[in-house]
């Protein structure tokens, strides 16, 4: 196996110049490392999130160099370029029937996948539950001990290349049917009530701070609810995320999951 710096350089080169004789093999090597959790699309380095663009390029190149092939499950069949992840028992992940994770995603041991969908390049931390009908988009990073409630959408970001993935840090609770997209960062321990929609331009107002915050980041331990903000000229109001308070014991009690339901596959 080539070292990671060389591998990154080869991926960049294939991305820039197109075909190389061993392009398929190089891209496969990167995807295998991603699938095994040895490399990731984004990681925290010295306290700041760093996006490994070469890994995203590898994911996109995987589509160029892969052919569609039939996949079946009993009478059910698909036709696609990206295989499905298998080997849940060995991976230590509890995967409930009809949960689907694509090859090139990585689910840490101890996570639980209810009937949900995890796309290529995404990563899900240990102790996290991806609840029913929720989707973790391509390259999204979900931390440890999170609850991604039923029907939540976490946006994917394969295109454009420079787009940052959505990052959900450890111990976050995303209430049912909400959506987080466009590279938004949800910091450690934040709680989003059901139905919160957060895109890159969504207005965020903090009641404890008494001011509007810059878009794109929900600060750690914020308890957020859907609301609206009046425009500057007072002519209309716009959907906004309202941070009501910092997480307290009452919030913890309401967002706690039964530990029996959370037990992963290890
Ligand atoms: C966010 C949540 C956990 C409440 O947290 P909490 O700490 O108990 O919040 P509180 O009840 O103390 O409310 C704090 C403030 O937020 C408001 N608020 C709370 N939940 C709200 C909601 N869902 N929508 C709008 N406002 C809400 C309260 O009215 C209160 O406002 P006030 O300070 O002006 O009186 C809860 O509303 C929620 O969304 N739970 C998740 C449900 C869910 O998705 N379950 C998973 C199913 S798979």
From TrEMBL:
GO terms of molecular function: 2,3,4,5-tetrahydropyridine-2,6-dicarboxylate N-succinyltransferase activity
Keywords: Acyltransferase, Transferase
Name of this chain's protein: 2,3,4,5-tetrahydropyridine-2,6-dicarboxylate N-succinyltransferase
Record-linked CDD domains: LbH_THP_succinylT
Taxonomic lineage of the native organism: Bacteria, Pseudomonadati, Planctomycetota, Planctomycetia, Pirellulales
Keyword Acyltransferase attributed: yes
InterPro entries: Hexapep, THP_succinylTrfase_dom1, THP_succinylTrfase_N_sf, Trimer_LpxA-like_sf
NCBIfam families recorded: PRK11830.1
EC number: 2.3.1.117
Origin: domain of life: Bacteria
Domain Tetrahydrodipicolinate-N-succinyltransferase chain A residue range list: 7-64
């Amino acid at each position: 196996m080539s070292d990671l710096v060389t591998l990154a350089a080869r991926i960049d080169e294939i991305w820039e110049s197109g075909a190389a004789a061993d392009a398929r093999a190089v891209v496969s090597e990167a995807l295998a490392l991603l699938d095994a959790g040895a490399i990731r699309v984004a990681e925290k380095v010295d306290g700041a999130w760093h996006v490994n663009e070469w890994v995203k390029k590898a994911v996109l190149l995987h589509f160029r160099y892969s052919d569609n092939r039939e996949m079946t499950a009993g009478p059910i069949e698909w036709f696609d370029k990206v295989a499905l992840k298998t080997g849940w028992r060995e991976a230590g992940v509890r995967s409930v029937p009809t949960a689907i994770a694509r090859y090139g995603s990585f689910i840490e041991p101890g996570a639980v996948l209810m009937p949900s969908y995890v796309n290529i390049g995404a990563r899900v931390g240990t102790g996290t539950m991806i609840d029913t009908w929720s989707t973790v988009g391509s390259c999204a990073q979900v931390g440890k001990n999170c609850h991604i409630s039923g029907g939540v959408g976490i946006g994917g970001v394969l295109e454009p290349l420079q787009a940052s993935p959505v990052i959900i840090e450890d111990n976050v609770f995303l209430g049912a049917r909400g959506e987080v997209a466009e590279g938004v960062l949800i910091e450690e321990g934040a709680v989003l009530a059901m139905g919160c929609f957060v895109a890159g331009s969504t207005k965020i107002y903090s009641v404890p701070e008494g001011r509007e915050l810059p878009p794109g980041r929900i600060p750690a331990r914020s308890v957020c609810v859907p609301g609206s903000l009046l425009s500057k000229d007072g002519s209309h109001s716009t959907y906004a995320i309202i941070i009501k308070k910092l997480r307290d014991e009452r919030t913890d009690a309401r967002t706690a999951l039964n530990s029996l339901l959370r037990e992963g596959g290890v």
